Amino acid sequence: xxxxxxxxxxxxxxxxxxxxxxxxxxxxxxxxxxxxxxxxxxxxxxxxxxxxxxxxxxxxxxxxxxxxxxxxxxxxxxxxxxxxxxxxxxxxxxxxxxxxxxxxxxxxxxxxxxxxxxxxxxxxxxxxxxxxxxxxxxxxxxxxxxxxxxxxxxxxxxxxxxxxxxxxxxxxxxxxxxxxxxxxx
Amino acid sequence: xxxxxxxxxxxxxxxxxxxxxxxxxxxxxxxxxxxxxxxxxxxxxxxxxxxxxxxxxxxxxxxxxxxxxxxxxxxxxxxxxxxxxxxxxxxxxxxxxxxxxxxxxxxxxxxxxxxxxxxxxxxxxxxxxxxxxxxxxxxxxxxxxxxxxxxxxxxxxxxxxxxxxxxxxxxxxxxxxxxxxxxxxxxxxxxxxxxxxxxxxxxxxxxxxxxxxxxxxxxxxxxxxxxxxxxxxxxxxxxxxxxxxxxxxxxxxxxxxxxxxxxxxxxxxxxxxxxxxxxxxxxxxxxxxxxxxxxxxxxxxxxxxxxxxxxxxxxxxxxxxxxxxxxxxxxxxxxxxxxxxxxxxxxxxxxxxxxxxxxxxxxxxxx
Lengths: 185, 367
Known about the structure:
heterodimer; A: alpha+beta; Beta Polymerase, domain 2; 5 helices; flat; B: alpha+beta; Cytochrome-c3 Hydrogenase, chain B; three-stranded antiparallel β-sheet; 14 helices
């Protein structure tokens, strides 16, 4: 199987990660051809997940499709890079029913468009108009600082520095006491 | 009188919903025409938070991804980190992890039993199940210091060794459980009220289950012998004997029978773990949290949770923070692809029954 992938898809980037897990990196233009080959000729019938990793410094998203054999023994990670700007990938929702919700999730979290997926409406976020939150440029702390109102906390009567110092001294004393007992003094 | 088309929300505040989610139901009379799942009531942004934290800081929050069964999250997280960092865990730590995962599976099945029986009004079963689950939580409290979120399966091993006499107390619990589970057969599994409601309801075909990526009891309930512990063994499951129970009818009752049989198998596994528990260290030396870096690489790890295959994708980038971690539990696909389909044509009174049988945990969808 590996040789066929290497020859047919002109890639050396095939890796055995574990005895039940393989990985291949492939150009986006050949992605679906490879997925079809694995499904039709090697029994990788189930699409288990689609994941995305944002490599902002390199200017692309890594999309990884997890395909599993019908006997569930082997998983193939097929990874492809797509451009971060105007990111889009062909939908798989017409071939794999579960891809519909997986793509909807990625659309919401990364802003990736999946032309042909008929239901890319909001999933967990409500009326979200900001940067998709799992993109690296989305700064959670900045967003919270700018959009949420902080409540003042309760006044703390304990001097934490003094308390830490006291606990450390207590621990040290206990340790030397234990050592003395151990040494039979 | 003519039946009118109405739309109602089942949840999020509803005893028959498994967590914080709702299902929008279009009904004619009591028959469902369309079901639309809604989540978003519990979005805590774990996957984003993890990208901001060091590996060890991230470890402290993964268990919160699924409330009924947090331990598979800890196991997946630890296994992914260890694989990327090239760490090998000691045999004793692996056996202890299996013990924790099986106890956790039992606890989750009791919780399911409480939910499933409650969905048809058999409340006594729920009271019993919660009380029996508490006996397992007592052991967890002794072992980890916490009843629900244990933070115990740590990258590099487990956080502390077993307390003195712990294995004897596990054995005592196993003896009790073996006897006790028969009572659940009488009051719940073989109860005519449950059978009448569950047989022939929420049927899933074998072909559909494979093609659509369904997992756990959904697969096994329609005759597919799928279990990560057997198919791609992790930890020391290949050293232990156990069966993968299946049924063929693919309905709610078949899934209940599978779960019940799995409880027996968990007891059988625990029995072996107690007998085979090796001596040795439970933790290897790992870098301090500020120096714990993962290489630029990625992996996909999975365990068999009480609800089915539970997987994590993890990518490192050479820094002390995890570049990306994605959770793939049973719930996303079961709550949308499966539940929305399965409810069409079902009766309103069967919504909770069907939903409970699918092992849906909303926090894991929104993660």
